[in-house]
Amino acid sequence: MTRQTEPLFDAVVRIDKLPIGGRSVRVDADEKTRAAIAEAMKVTSVERFVAELRVVPLRGGLRAQGQLDARIVQPSIVSFEPVEQEIRETIDRVFLPSTDHGAPVAPGAEIYVDLEDDDFPDHIDGPEVDLSALLVETLALAIDPYPRREGEDASSLGGLDDGEPTGPFAALSRLKTESKD
Length: 181
Known about the structure:
Blueprint: E1 12-14, E2 23-28, H1 31-41, E3 45-58, E4 61-75, E5 82-97, E6 122-124, E7 128-130, H2 131-142, H3 168-180
Parallel strand pairs: 5-6
Antiparallel strand pairs: 1-7, 2-3, 3-4, 4-5
């Protein structure tokens, strides 16, 4: 997926204007926006894209929690028939300001990074966070990369396996058998 320079929809939250009690962010993408999301995700269509987030301030940044509900249509990898996928993903992300401010790390200093931590924060530069990128990323990670209709597999296409071995070694095997006769 290529990085978008312009957000597909407006879901920007300014940290400096965020109330202490937080606020709700609701995204219900219109037809034009869903078409742009479908093009970005390389799927046939996005039939529904609705997100409900609760955004609260956290240590100079913010925490976004909520739900993404979407319905996408993409072609089956077996028959190319349309396959619908319902997506319901829980979102819980933390965005914190970058703490290094460009300062180099002291020689010999230890830096601890726990890559197994699910709450590893995203770093932000500036006073705002674009939650549209978070929502599109969540959708991209939830899409089935190999969609198939129920009960579909390569054998359902028929004519693919006639019981005879195929490939270069099968041809060599037949030659070897013929030369013995």
